[in-house]
Amino acid sequence: MKTQKTLITTLTLLALMGLQSVHAAYAGAGVGYLIDGQEELLTTHVGFQVAEKSSVSHNVEFEIAYADSSEMGVDIEILPIMVNYRIVNTKHSSYDLYFGVGVGLSIVDVDAFGYSDDDSVLTAQAMVGIDFKMSDKASIRLGYRYVYLDTVKVFDLEVRDPDDSVVEIGLVVKF
Fold first, then answer.
1. What is the rounded CA–CA span in Å between residue 136 and residue 174?
2. What's the pTM?
3. What pLDDT sits at residue 175?
4. CA dist 34 to 6, 65, 83, 168, 175, Å?
5. 42 contacts 65 by C-beta, under 8 angstroms
6. Which of 24, 40, 108, 140 has a 20 to 30 A CA-CA distance from 133?
7. What residues have CB less than 8 Å from 60, skipping those under 6 apart?
8. What is the pLDDT of residues 71-114, one digit of tens each?
9. Please, are residues 129 and 144 in contact by the beta-carbon 8 Å criterion?
């Protein structure tokens, strides 16, 4: 629990420090589809530009996501809390291409037949996609991400490498 609090506090401070440079800050939200899990993944993020060289922007983001599944009396909730690094090619006037990686912690909560257990595991992701510019301040995001979770231990059982692929759509707004 102490590790979770430290990570959440650190990520929040990083995000707030980045918002000081308002001209380079942005926020977004999206919905994705977990291909293997066949569930939706809701994401929200806030980020800021840390450097720009010619037509390449380097960005740091704080992201929180949420996925849940319910089948035959078993409810599973996953809450990934991530720090992402995103490289954006801003060369084109109508769209931006991006690639990114992220690392963080996922809180996994399982309720089964009146019993509950949870675990917190290392999470990593890689993402790629395109932001279609609607204006100078807003874009529609289409993307793909691969999400890896470390071994989840609940009810004395281990679920090894519960990874998944996600296709997503979202909205990004610059400040």
1. 8
2. 0.81
3. 86
4. 28, 12, 20, 9, 30
5. yes
6. 40
7. 14, 18, 47, 48, 50, 83, 84, 85, 86
8. 887 888 899 999 999 999 988 889 999 999 999 999 888 888 88
9. yes
Question: If you search the block for the tokens 């690639």, which residue do you land on?
Answer: 99
Q: How far apart are CA 83 and CA 174, in angstroms?
A: 18
Mean pLDDT within 59-80: 89
Q: Which residue has the tokens 């874009």?
A: 139
Take residue 98 and report the two structure tokens written for it. 């991006």
CATH fold group of domain 2-174: Porin (2.40.160)
Q: Quote the CA–CA distance of 151 and 34 in Å, as a whole number.
A: 18
The tokens of 153 are what?
Answer: 């231990």
Cα gap 64→84, rounded to integer Å:
11
